[in-house]
Write a structure and sequence with these properties.
The chain has 62 residues and is of the alpha+beta class. It is 31% helix and 29% strand.
């Protein structure tokens, strides 16, 4: 069973996550040949102050 762990900055709506989950499931089924019910997706909302790129917090980039 493929499990996808998706980390996003917080603030996405349930509708956006629902649409993304559908698209990810469809792509996974197409590429891996598994059934849709086998695809697990975990969304993790992350605060910009808890994420850094290049040594800089995303919250400092705003």
């Amino acid at each position: 069973m493929p499990t996808l762990n998706i980390q996003l900055f917080e603030g996405r709506t349930p509708e956006q996550k629902r649409a993304y989950a559908k698209a990810l499931t469809e792509a996974t089924v197409s590429v891996l040949g598994c059934s849709p019910s086998a695809v697990e997706i975990i969304f993790q909302d992350v605060k910009k102050s808890d994420w850094a790129s290049g040594g800089v917090l995303w919250s400092d980039k705003d």
